[in-house]
C-alpha cells in the first residue's frame, strides 16, 4: 500500500512543485482543491470535476456531520463511495465553520458546543470528535481541530487562541492514531504577528505532522496583509512537507501564494461564482449577466477546452444565466474549475522549468488587458 | 438532402413502430421528446440528453420568442447551434402557452395579442408570426398555430374554437411555405366530442400535413377521458403520417397512448419531477425526500444504466435532494429521462415483435408491485 508522502520535485525562488503520493492517487502541487461541501461540488458530477484536472477535493466536516451525519456516511462505505469520488479527499476540521455558521456556540478548553444551523440540534466538536468524524468520513488528509479567532482581534486574543489551537493540535495528533496512508495536517495560527506565527510553527513541528497549513488567513484581512504573512510564514514550516493555504482564493491570490511557497489551496470561489453568472478567465472576471453579451457569438474564453466554451456562445451563457437555468450554473462552474486547473498546471510547469517570473508577469499582463471588447 | 418522411415499419393491434427520417437524423417511434423549454432541458447537458436515447427535443415558441427572442436566435445560427443540440427539434406554436402563461390576452380572428409574463412587453402571435418564429428558430418539426380552449368549456365553445383552429391551420400551411426537410404538423381539436374530432380531422386532411397531432388533451380531463378520445381520434388521422399526442405524460399515459396508435409524445414530467426529488421507475414513482431512503445503500432502480443508479445510493440521492443540491436535480432528471427512453425502446421492440400485450401486462404488473421494501 502506498504511504502518504510528498515528493518535492523543483523550486523556482520560493515557489515549489512536486507530487503528494496517497493510496488514492497522486496530487500534483501546487494543487487547487475544489470544494465539495455537502458531498458534492455544487452543479458538477464528479467525473466532470476530475475532467477539469482536479486531483483532490475538499469536504466540510461541519456540514457533513450535521447532514447526512458522519456515522451514516461510514455505514454507507465512506465519503468517497457515498459521493462517487475515488481520488483523495481532504476534510477540514469543522473548527472554522462552527464559528462562522453555527448558532449558540460555547467555546471551552474541551471544544465547542453548538446548535446546528439546519435543525437546531446540539453538537460538540472537539479535537477528539473532529478526528473521529474525519476518520468516519474516510478522509485522506485530515486537518487538526483549531480555533480561528474572529476579526478584529487584539494580539493578545490572537495569541491566546493560537495557544489553544496548539494544545488542540497535540490532542488531534494523539486522537488521530496510527493510520497508514492517511495524513494529519497541523494548522499554523498567529494572525499577522510574525512572532506568534513562529511560536505556532515551532509548536507544530515539535508535535510533527504529514503536512502543515497556514491558517487564519483569507478571513477578511485583505490581499496585502495576507501576502505580508506569506512573505515569512510558509518558510517557518518544514520544507519537506506540503504547505496548505486554507480558503484561498482569487486567481491572483493563488499566484501570489504559490510564489511564496504554498503547495495546496482550496476555495469556493470558482464554484460559487459559477452559480451567480461570473466567469473567470485569463483576462479577468466576466459577468455573464451583462447585456453586452446578449448577441455575442464568441465563447466566454477563446481556446478554453471546457464544454461551456467549446459548445456555447456568450449569448447562450447570458441567456441561461438571465433565465436562471441550471445549465448556466453547470457550465460556468465547469468553466471556472477548468480555468483554475489550467492556471495550476501553468504554475506547475513554469516552476518546473524555472520560468515562474515570466509566467507571473504574463498572468498579470493578460488580466490588465481586461475582457475582450464588445463586438 | 434527406427529405422529411415517415417509415411505418410494424404494427401490433393499433400500436405502431417506425422511423421518421429528417435531415438532422432519424426519430425512432414511438418517440418520447424531452422538453427543452428555454433552449435547455433543465439540469441536463445536451450530450447527456442524447445519451438517454432521445432522438428529438421539444422547444417552446412562447418562451423562446420572449427570451432570448427568435430573431436573436436566428442571428446566432438557429436554435440547434445556440443550444448545442444537432438532432431534430420540434417546436410548439406558442398557442397553448400564450393562453396559460401570458397576461392580458386578447383573442381575435387574427391571433392573440398578449403581454409577456417576463417583462410586460406586448406581443402578437398569429399563424403567420408563429410560422416565422419557428422558421427563425430553425425547428425541424413545426406545429400549426392553434387555440386550445380552457376547460371547462361547452361543446359549442369547443366547436367554435376548433373551427378557428382549422382556419388558422390553413393560414399556418400557407405561411409555412416550401421548406424541404422541414415538416408542418396539423393539430386536431374537438375536445371529447367524436363528431368534432372527425370534423377537425377532415379539415386537416383536406389541407394536408407531414404529421398530425391530437391536441386539446392532457389539459386536466383525466386519463379515462383522454383514453376515451384516443380510442377513436388517432384513427381519424392518416395512417402513413406520424401522430403526435401533445403534453403526455405519465408512464402509464404513454403506454396507453402507444397502444392506441400514437407515435410521438412530449412532457415536462420526467424533467420537472427530477427537480422535486421524484424518481420514475418500472415499479412506479419514488419520492427520494422520504426518510426511509436515508440509510438505503441500494440504487434508485436496480439494473438501471443511468449515472444516478450506477454510481449512487438512494441514501445519497435522499441527502442531495434534502440539501437542495443541484446534483440532485441533475441525477434525478437524468434518471427519469433515461427511464422514459428505456420504456420507449421497450415499447418499440415489443411492437416490432408483435408482443405488445405481454409487454403492457408486465408493465402494469411491475407497477402494481410498488417500490422495493425498505431494508
TrEMBL record, chains A, B:
Locate the transmembrane regions by residue number: none
This chain belongs to the protein called Queuine tRNA-ribosyltransferase
Instruction: Give the catalytic activity.
Output: 7-aminomethyl-7-carbaguanine + guanosine(34) in tRNA = 7-aminomethyl-7-carbaguanosine(34) in tRNA + guanine
Annotated region described as RNA binding, given as residue ranges: 247-253
* Residues forming the catalytic site: 92, 266
All copies of domain tRNA-guanine(15) transglycosylase-like, residue ranges: 14-367
Q: What class of enzyme is it?
A: transferase
Q: Summarize the protein's role.
A: Catalyzes the base-exchange of a guanine (G) residue with the queuine precursor 7-aminomethyl-7-deazaguanine (PreQ1) at position 34 (anticodon wobble position) in tRNAs with GU(N) anticodons (tRNA-Asp, -Asn, -His and -Tyr). Catalysis occurs through a double-displacement mechanism. The nucleophile active site attacks the C1' of nucleotide 34 to detach the guanine base from the RNA, forming a covalent enzyme-RNA intermediate. The proton acceptor active site deprotonates the incoming PreQ1, allowing a nucleophilic attack on the C1' of the ribose to form the product.
Q: Which residues bind Zn(2+)?
A: 304, 306, 309, 335
Keyword Zinc assigned to the entry: answer is yes
The record's listing under HAMAP family reads: Q_tRNA_Tgt (MF_00168)
Where on this chain does substrate bind? 92-96, 146, 189, 216
Which pathway is recorded for this entry?
Answer: tRNA modification; tRNA-queuosine biosynthesis
Which species is the source of this protein? Neogemmobacter tilapiae
Please name the InterPro entries in this protein's record.
ArchSynthase1/Queuine_TRR, TGT, TGT-like_sf, tRNA_ribo_trans-like
Respond yes or no to whether keyword Glycosyltransferase is given for this record: yes
Protein family (similarity comment): Belongs to the queuine tRNA-ribosyltransferase family.
Record GO cellular component, one term: cytosol
Coiled-coil segments on the chain, per record? none
One of the entry's Gene Ontology molecular-function terms is: metal ion binding
GO BP: tRNA queuosine(34) biosynthetic process
Q: Please give the subunit comment from the record.
A: Homodimer. Within each dimer, one monomer is responsible for RNA recognition and catalysis, while the other monomer binds to the replacement base PreQ1.
Q: What is its EC number?
A: 2.4.2.29
Q: Which UniProt keywords apply?
A: Glycosyltransferase, Metal-binding, Queuosine biosynthesis, Transferase, tRNA processing, Zinc
The free-text note explaining how the cofactor binds reads:
Binds 1 zinc ion per subunit.
